[in-house]
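worker-3 :: picked Inositol-1-monophosphatase ImpA
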Amino acid sequence: MSRYSALLDIALECINEAEVLFVEGHGAQPAVRKGEGDFATKVDLNIETLLRERLQTRTGIAVVGEELGGQQAERMWVIDPIDGTSNYSVGNPMSAILLSLIEDGQPKVAVTSLPLAGQRFAACEGEALRCPASAGGKDVSHVGFSTITTRTKSPVPQVMRMDILGALACSKLRPRITGSVGVDLAYAAAGVFAVGVSLSPNVWDNAAGVLLGRAAGKTVTDIWGNPWHLGAVGAVIGDAEAHDIVMEIMQTQSKESQWASQFE
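worker-3 :: tokens ->
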């Protein structure tokens, strides 16, 4: 048993409560405008508030969330109450609750819950991935690539994202745009997708998927192909062959860009 098993059990119990709010509020309309095309619903706020209260009370560990912020610490819970909020608000089930425990710059506990799909993916360091059975990886190789548009600071410009997507479409991989980075990375860890790609710079988008991938024995890096750590940009998670295809495409597309030096 991992020394993080008890914390994973607590995380799952807290997620049980959060899932009830998630399902009851499905279809909630925007309540807080965060910028052009970006918003949170009241359910985002309610779920994050619930998880903050439960986790702080039961563990005494600091919490950082997408909606309510917080001070980063060497040991902290990280919450994305609804990853794929725009999906959630229009009735699309491809949305998830993402929760992770970061310690010394690495995820140690992770839960990705898709309440509307009835799927949950969980792991803690030292234990295998807990997930629904998957029939993926036999005849079709999908790549999850949901960060097509960006309204946040990112080293990957919009035009390059489209070029990367186009190159992926011409490879042996079949792109899938779920609209949720958390779903993409969890599906890659579970083998539903051969590989999942996140270009997001936000820890709450990537940390849970990183640990899920590691627990499943997948290849896990940042977008430059380096080992993932707190502060890394994005994540690429998947089978070794599919991961190599993604990295080759990203390097090719970046040769004349401002971030090409990151591969050197």
